Amino acid sequence: MTLLVNDEQFKIFPMIDSHAHLDFSEFDHDRGELFQQMRDLGVEQVVIPGVSEDKWANQVRIAKQFDCPFALGIHPWFCHSMTNQTLANLRELLLRSQQDEKLVAIGECGLDKLHKSNFATQLSVFKAQILLAEEFELPLIIHCVKSHEEMLNLLKVSKNVRKGVIHGFYGGPELASRYVHLGYKLGIGGLLLNDNAHKLQQTVAELPLSAFVLETDSPAMRPQNSDSDRNSPLILPLLLKKMASLQKKTNVLISEQLYLNVSQLFDL
Ligand SMILES: [Zn+2]
Description:
The protein is an alpha/beta fold and 268 residues long. The chain is 41% helix and 16% strand. The longest helix has 18 residues, at 119-136. It is globular. InterPro entries: DNase_TatD-rel_CS (IPR018228), Metal_Hydrolase (IPR032466), TatD-like (IPR001130). Belongs to the metallo-dependent hydrolases superfamily. TatD-type hydrolase family.
């Protein structure tokens, strides 16, 4: 692994975005340019998660084109647009992709009480995807909003040995510790840069560095004070610096540990 030197003050290991929807149409007009800018900045890889059946084909095509690891799954926001065949089709696609070393996870999937999709349906679709993670021995990329007790109860009894990541984590240290205790990582994104994200900043300051992976959830989750109309993996160095200052460690040390965490999680 080579050490990057972006500028005089910022010597770091390469960065990996554990969660960015770079297949979305927001990137259609300048995707190639963005990948070039990411390379120049030291962003080595980006994991592209799946969200719904109608997007899988294009997502996998773009992942192939730019040599990105990807995940396949059904996001809780898209449970209402599923058909009876969707879960069977997901399993079929996973079977076909099983030998593909770029397939690294199931997801994103999970529970979201703030969304209109019926919660009972979300639960059954998420449970089915936990079983797929067990069957295919892949980690889970989990979206969880206002449903942490239900989520923790499901993960506690799951036999999924590869565990996974609670993406876009925004809770305090106590909740964070419960996930870490079960073997899950926490995906830390642009929210960390917001001045009023006190709980999340406390989590990052107090938990061991081994608990975290970096993510942007691009194009969503644009940080406050950003002058761009979309989020992108180009904010990763800012996240890394913020994490280093909260953990009171150097950028080099933080970047090395985060690189190891995400590489281990997804077997990159
Ligand atoms: Zn996402």
